[in-house]
Amino acid sequence: GNLLHEQGRLKDALVHLETALSLRADIPEVHGNLAIVLAGLGRGEEALARLEDAVRLRPTDPDLHYKLGNL
How is residue 11 annotated by DSSP? Predict the structure, then answer.
């Protein structure tokens, strides 16, 4: 998903990251990466929800807080 995001293929990245989330919802980075793609697609409320989930999973991660603050 991340490579597709870097290539600007946000819809393709979304599919892969949603699959990753369905397989491993316990990994905060998956939520965070999905949030960035959702935001890029103009789906801000969904992006916010994913980042909030990521922060709940790893509340001490400064990168996740940074992403949340810059959404």
Answer: H
